[in-house]
Design brief:
The structure holds two protein chains of two kinds. Chain A has helices at about 1-35, 35-45, 60-70, 120-130, 135-155, 160-165, 175-185, 190-205, 205-210, 210-215, 220-230, 245-255, 310-325, 330-360, 370-395, 405-425, 430-455, 460-465, 470-495, 500-505; strands spanning about 70-80, 85-95, 100-105, 260-270, 275-280, 295, 305. Chain A is of the alpha+beta class. Chain A has three domains: about 1-45 and about 120-205 and about 330-510, no CATH class; about 45-115, Nuclear Transport Factor 2, Chain: A (Roll); about 235-325, Nuclear Transport Factor 2, Chain: A (Roll). In chain A, a hairpin with a 6-residue loop joins strand 2 and strand 3 (about 100-105). Chain A is globular and about 80 Å long. The chains are: A alpha+beta, B mainly alpha.
Chain lengths: ~500, ~100
Amino acid sequence: MKESFTQSMDWLHTWGGLLFGWVLFTIFLTGTLTVFDKEITFWMQPELHHVDSAHVNIKAVEQQLTRLGSNSDRWWIELPSVRTPAVTIFWQRDDQENFEERWLDPTTGEILQVRDTRGGDFFYRFHYSLHLNRTGVWIVGASAMVMLVALVTGLVIHHRIFKDFFSFRPRATFHRAWLDAHNVTSVLVLPFHFVITFTGLVIFWTIYMPAGIQFLYGGNSDKVFHELEGHLEREPARSPAALASLSDMERQARAHWNGGSTESIEVQHPGDRHAIVNVSRRAADRLALMSDRVTFDGATGELLQVWKGELPVFTTYSVLIGLHYIWFDHDAIRWLYFGMSLAATVMIATGLLLWIIKRRDRHTERPLGFRIVESLNVAVVAGLLVAIAVYFVANRLLPVALPDRADWEMGAFFLVWSLCTTHSVVRAHSQQAWREQLSVAALLFALIPLCNMATIDSHLLVTLPAGNWRLASVDLLCLLAGLLLGWAAWLVNRPVEQVHPSSASLTGAEQA
Amino acid sequence: MGKRTRSPLSWKHVASRVGAAALGGYAFTYAFTACLTLLLPLPRTEALLTAAMLSFLLYAGAIIWAFTAATPWRAWLGLLAPTAVFTAIATPLALAMGQ
């Protein structure tokens, strides 16, 4: 009975992992980049590289919003942080779904002309919706469930976990080395894999598991969020009243936070007698994502509410999703997340390759299914890397004034990815396809710092001597990625069909 | 399941089992989550969040269980029977609570 249990878990792990592995790889690779989403956005907006955020003049920002958003019903001000130097303002008209966005100089409140780009936000959105809106969110959710199941089944079939934990045999047979790589990247950071997958599901609980909302709130999720986050809202009075000083309210709010700083100021019904101002605390110094908020009457400046989400389950929930969002400011932890997330990505890629490697020795002829898997592996693993590099290059090389520029950047990403997919199908030998795409990716990543030198004045030769690590790290990581991918391309180049027939009959963990 | 490795895998059995795991498992989790939300002696937002967060672990467990059940038929039964029970508890409760 035990034997058959392990076998069914092995089956589930293998086939679930294969079918969802490609989506999971794209989610985890773009998710890895999302760890540094704000840094990537900053890198992609060279116009902001010299902005000084030491002093924030909220009055000047408010004047700018009064001018631009006079007939809108909602304003948002996002104050600068170590990760984003400019003030961002948004405003939304009553009759429109979309909001307008501008970047302001924190000191003067002047509008900064910034190239149109989605920056790191593109990877952030892609990693949970695959650029497919709600459908994508469901696909990602299903994949995350498969990931959760694959983690459990992986543990079951890998019962020699502690012994194998210390084995990495790169010089053993090809298959053993890949299996070891898969096991090491799985086991070493298993808690991370589990936490990041679970919390990813929890973030979208209202979409994935609205059972409680249906039965307890009649399906009204707006009402749920109102209760959860204690929002005060009121209808506009339709009679004008000047807005009290936002900078005074911001100062008053901070007094409630024991040294915490302000992340954003939201104004509802600006210019109306019923205006409401929400000042929210930055989650920089805490794990919990849902942060403290102080609410004022916009017209009188009177304090209406000091909100701190302190109920135990809510706090647990807030910390759990905070562990996924990592909005706290801690560079060392951020890099750790980057490394662990990369390990997860590598785990998924090695798993996908293992499926091929395990079966390659058993077949002399390659059936169609086998070829499809090989092509998809190349298209998803190598092709996505090429597309990501192209997205960075496009940010530098597309004309700054190009209309709909952000769409062109994303278009370049998707165009190149589909070209890579075609290439991987057309190429008869997957080894050749691997080598070519990895070489192109290596070349493109290495080119990124050079594109910088050719197009902007904050490149490595400037940022390195100045100790500007926020910018230099991006270039250095691109160089490193170029080197590693070049090395990978070189490895693929070596003949690998030297596996002895005896090693094809595998024992040990593979059978387990 | 032990037999599956000896006799060739019938795709109908595989499809049925996958269906039981994915759909049956979801229905089971959904009904259980609704029940738990209504029955937990906590403030209602707290009950809501507790049940919602646990649901993903429960669903994972249900999927794994569906693959260990002796036959696909039993996997369906084992998930849908409790689904019916939980729905029968949750529906009148929700109505009584004014939803």
